Amino acid sequence: MGKYIRVKLSDLKSSRYLSWSQEQLDIKQDIIDNYSPRIKPITISSDYKICDGNHRYNILVNHYGGGHKIIVKKQRYTKRMYDYVGLILGLILLLPFILYQLVNLIVKKLAQLKKVL
């Protein structure tokens, strides 16, 4: 079996005063050539099977060969999801207060109308 290789975006970026190796240029060109904005990023299930983004996995396998193991870091939530969860929870917590104030306003207006009539 081949050795383990960890691939991170920071490994593909050139730091200041460093030049790109031919291997890094090949990986970068493969990813650029196969990029499509319509395709979502790699999605991995809870049992570490690739659900979506198999083309990126295949780029790495074609480049490094089938004898290597590609290690992928799985993240459960994105920042965008946290933003929506906070917004929804805030609305749920404010909804009873808003409804209470609305009912009180309607009752007061009805009482004023009864006094006028």
Describe this structure in words.
The chain has 117 residues and is mostly helical. It is built from four helices and four strands, in the order βααββαβα. The strands form two sheets. The protein has a two-stranded parallel sheet. The chain has a two-stranded antiparallel sheet with strand order 2-3. The longest helix has 38 residues, at 79-116. The termini are far apart. This is ParB/Sulfiredoxin domain-containing protein.
Output the keywords.
56% helix; two-stranded parallel sheet; two-stranded antiparallel sheet; 4 helices; 2 domains; 117 residues; mainly alpha; 8% strand
**Termini gap:** 91 Å
Nearest-integer average pLDDT? 72
Q: Give the quaternary arrangement of the chains.
A: single chain
Low-confidence stretches: none
How many DSSP helices? 4
Helix % is: 55-70%
The SSE order reads: EHHEEHEH
Tell me how many strands there are: 4
Number of domains: 2
What portion of residues belong to β-strands?
A: 5-15%
Q: Taking strands numbered 1, 2, ... along the chain, how are they ordered across the largest sheet?
A: 1-4
* Derived structural class: mainly alpha
Principal-axis shape equals rod-shaped
Largest sheet: 2 strands, parallel
Integer-rounded radius of gyration: 28 Å
Keywords: Membrane, Transmembrane, Transmembrane helix
Transmembrane segments: 84-107
Organism: marine sediment metagenome
Protein name: ParB/Sulfiredoxin domain-containing protein
